[in-house]
Amino acid sequence: MKVGAFLKSCNQSLAICGADESIGVIAARLSSKNIGALPVCDDNHGLIGVISERDIVRAFAKDAATLRDRRVRDLMTSKVISCDPAISMIDAEKMMNEARVRHLPIVEHGKTVGMLSIRDLMVWRIRVAREEIDVLRDVVIAARHA
């Protein structure tokens, strides 16, 4: 299965943020949407970074007093790997494992179009396992009736 097809099957609604937004606003958005990271995009939806809960927690540990008013650009990870929606879920999973990341922005023609999470990979793996179980069950049923 391709990443783009998987995200469409999940009816993903992409949430993004800008580099000038405050960390207080971003923390509230992450919490309200129950997500762990946001792609940071320019005005044309071009990917410029990722801001995650971990980025915020690490900054909180260093200087909690000023965190709420700091900007995304101050904390975001700017060296980000991304993938095209046409790559397979298996290849996306490999990319995430090799880079040791939990979120993979999906970029098509220079625009951010989605975000694949480790949770998404788990859902996909469960779907694949259920499909395999169904096929094996059908094979056993057919063999019994042959």
* Spatial strand sequence of the major β-sheet: 1-2
Q: So, the CATH homologous superfamily?
A: CBS-domain
Count of distinct strands? 4
Query: How far from one another are the termini?
Result: 32 Å
- The second-level CATH architecture is Roll
Number of domains: 1
Number of H- or I-type helical stretches: 6
Stretches with pLDDT under 50, minimum 5 residues = none
Strand content: 15-25%
Rough outline: elongated
Based on secondary structure, the structural category is alpha+beta
Which CATH class applies here? Alpha Beta
Instruction: Estimate percent helicity.
Output: 40-55%
Seen as an oligomer or otherwise, the chain set is single chain
User: Averaged pLDDT, please?
Assistant: 93
**CATH topology term:** CBS-domain
**Rg of Cα set:** 19 Å
Most strands sheet: 2 strands, antiparallel
Strand and helix order: HHEEHHHEEH
Jot down its keywords:
about 150 residues, alpha+beta, CBS-domain, two-stranded antiparallel ribbon, two-stranded antiparallel sheet, 6 helices, 4 strands, about 15% strand
Characterise the protein shown here.
- The chain has helices at residues 3-9, 23-33, 53-67, 72-75, 89-99, 118-144, and strands at residues 37-41, 47-52, 103-108, 111-117.
- It has 146 residues and is of the alpha+beta class.
- The mean pLDDT is 93.
- The protein is built from 6 helices and 4 strands.
- It has a single domain (3-117), classed as CBS-domain (Roll), CATH 3.10.580.10.
- Strand 3 (103-108) and strand 4 (111-117) form a beta hairpin.
- Helices cover 51% and strands 16% of the residues.
- The strands form 2 sheets. It has a two-stranded antiparallel ribbon. Strands 3-4 form a two-stranded antiparallel ribbon.
